[in-house]
């Protein structure tokens, strides 16, 4: 290979594929390689036989579960905020033409041992069994403040500078109790722990507004959407985009060793005795293990069931957030369920995932609060995986490494990582502000 590329991307995980697509659209010369013979890397979707091979070391799943090919089981299960950064990126790049999405039925929160629908605006707050009558009034006032808040219009700020006022201070102004704060912080603003309470309130208010806008976008029962046939469709859609703009793909390339010049800068990738030269390398943590550090561990369970999750209004697709405080943990637990309505399982079958940041080495024990909400289970698989983030300085070695996927069941943190890498590589910020109104019109 005597060509030189601007960027070589290693691994076809979702983050790498989005980045490859964005860089190709920018007319950079991109070569994309993967040691696997399939797209998706860690974020692929498996059929039933692949699932059994991975977890049971067998290629004979029980016939009672239906045809293997009818399953698309996500290894990194996440929903997309209908108005969120990933959807904006899909619209900005026109990748939406390769995908079909469907709204997710429900968004729920675990509180005092029960599952409740998440109230997302002042009207829902008034109906919610999560709060008593007086608390509902206080919560409604708070929701109205958030709904009306406009960063560029001081009249809506009520004299508060949210870049300085902490979330704790804002909440105390409205006198909300701990239970209400719990679902606002974890189920609406989607914070993973309680650190946000001591940080400026602006970030949380923006997150709540994103939730409410996403809910309005499809008029569904939740702010989330999810692709038909599972998330394995996303990396392939971005790979297609990259190819349209001249990106080159090579799957099933063993080894993929990054080469460095005398100054320690990445200058190429060698596979099967051939070296492709490049100016920059993008990869997931598995390709450069000596340039990443372990930052945590995710525990997860994958369950196949023949019914929806109880107490979620028969929802075929649903997210339930179990806030850390409700479980006496340091981090939240997430419950994610999808089914044949999104073409990820045969008719009558549901796939549920329970995920959390692992605090022990016993996923079976640790995930029990989430598993207890599932009802009868046909089959269940447990595993833990380590989370890594880069420890290198890309300005020194030209290596841009993504962070591992966290246990959250939405894509906001995933896409922010990609956009940060995009800016570091190109020196530009991707403008995602312009596309949504046109897209909404097109959807309607």
Automatic annotation (TrEMBL):
The keyword Nucleus does not apply. One of its GO terms (molecular function) is Rab GDP-dissociation inhibitor activity. Keywords: GTPase activation. Transmembrane segments: none annotated. One of its GO terms (biological process) is vesicle-mediated transport. It comes from the Eukaryota. GO terms for cellular component: apoplast; cytoplasm. Belongs to the Rab GDI family. PANTHER family: RAB GDP DISSOCIATION INHIBITOR, RAB GDP-DISSOCIATION INHIBITOR. Regulates the GDP/GTP exchange reaction of most RAB proteins by inhibiting the dissociation of GDP from them, and the subsequent binding of GTP. This is Guanosine nucleotide diphosphate dissociation inhibitor. It comes from Zingiber officinale (Ginger).
């Amino acid at each position: 290979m005597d060509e030189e590329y601007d960027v070589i991307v290693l691994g076809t995980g979702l983050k790498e594929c989005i980045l490859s697509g964005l860089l190709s659209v920018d007319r950079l010369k991109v070569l994309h390689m993967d040691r696997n013979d399939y797209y998706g890397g860690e974020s692929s979707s498996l059929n039933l036989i692949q699932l059994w091979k991975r977890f049971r070391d067998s290629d004979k799943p029980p016939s009672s579960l239906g045809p293997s090919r009818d399953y698309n089981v996500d290894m990194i299960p996440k929903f997309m905020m209908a108005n969120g950064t990933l959807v904006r990126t899909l619209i900005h790049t026109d990748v939406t033409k390769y995908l079909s999405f469907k709204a997710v039925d429900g968004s729920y929160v675990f509180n005092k041992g029960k599952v409740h629908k998440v109230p997302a605006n002042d009207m829902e707050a008034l109906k919610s069994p999560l709060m008593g009558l007086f608390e509902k009034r206080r919560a409604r006032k708070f929701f109205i403040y958030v709904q009306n808040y406009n960063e560029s219009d001081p009249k809506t700020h009520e004299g508060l500078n949210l870049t300085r006022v902490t979330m704790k201070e804002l909440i105390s102004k409205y006198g909300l109790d701990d239970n209400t704060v719990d679902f606002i912080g974890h189920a609406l603003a989607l914070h993973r722990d309680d650190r946000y309470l001591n940080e400026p309130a602006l970030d949380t208010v923006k997150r709540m507004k994103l939730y409410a806008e996403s809910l309005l976008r499809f008029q569904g029962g939740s702010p989330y959407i999810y692709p038909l046939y599972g998330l394995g469709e996303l990396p392939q859609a971005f790979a297609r985009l990259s190819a349209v703009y001249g990106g080159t793909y090579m799957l099933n390339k063993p080894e993929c060793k990054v080469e460095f010049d005398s100054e320690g800068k990445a200058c190429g990738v060698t596979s099967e005795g051939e070296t492709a030269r490049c100016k920059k390398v993008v990869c997931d943590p598995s390709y450069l293990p000596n340039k990443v550090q372990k930052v945590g561990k995710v525990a997860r369970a994958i369950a196949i069931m023949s019914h929806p999750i109880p107490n979620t209004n028969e929802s075929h697709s649903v997210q339930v957030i179990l806030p850390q405080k409700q479980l006496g943990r340091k981090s939240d637990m997430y419950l994610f369920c999808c089914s044949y309505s999104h073409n990820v399982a045969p008719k009558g079958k549901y796939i549920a995932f329970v995920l959390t940041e692992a605090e022990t080495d016993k996923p079976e024990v640790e995930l029990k609060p989430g598993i207890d909400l599932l009802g009868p289970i046909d089959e269940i698989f447990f595993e833990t995986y380590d989370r890594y983030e880069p420890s290198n300085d890309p300005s020194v070695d030209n290596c841009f490494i993504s962070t591992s996927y966290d246990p959250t069941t939405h894509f906001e943190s995933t896409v922010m990582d990609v956009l940060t890498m995009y800016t570091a590589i190109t020196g530009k910020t991707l403008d995602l502000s312009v596309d949504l109104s046109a897209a909404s019109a097109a959807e309607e």
